[in-house]
Amino acid sequence: MLAAALILGLAGQTEPFAGELKERLASPIDATLTTTKRPYDLEVCLADAITMLGIPTVLRDGPDNLVIGAASANVFNATVSVIRTGEGSQILIRVKGKGFNDRVTSRVRQCL
């Protein structure tokens, strides 16, 4: 009985789903920036800044934070996480492929 319960318990444990977006957010951070602007003041400019890498999607991450992803062909090529801080926002940039890091970071800086 105990063995059957243990097997059923282990079979019922599953890893949380991690799709393409979660994988991109788990990848190393390519650049970290700070600004005195709040997340909602940045979202349109930041979404526009990463359009060179795909169609932007803006998602809320809790009441104060944003995740902006640029995707093409079901692949998130870049994400920009905007985290509200007491003084403004912290921006975390992750880009797939190293050739675009400087260009994306430069465009994001223009929003600050």
Task: Give descriptors for this structure.
alpha+beta; TATA-Binding Protein; five-stranded antiparallel beta sheet; 4 helices; 34% helix
What does this entry look like structurally?
By secondary structure, the chain is α+β, with helices and mostly antiparallel strands. The protein has one domain: 2-Layer Sandwich (TATA-Binding Protein). Helix content is 34%, strand content 33%. It has four helices and five strands, in the order ααβαββββα. The chain has a five-stranded antiparallel beta sheet, sandwiched between helices. The longest helix is centred in the N-terminal third of the chain and has 11 residues, at 2-12. It is globular.
Instruction: Report the C-alpha radius of gyration, rounded.
Output: 18 Å
Structural class: alpha+beta
**CATH architecture name:** 2-Layer Sandwich
Beta content: 25-35%
Short description:
Helix content is 34%, strand content 33%.
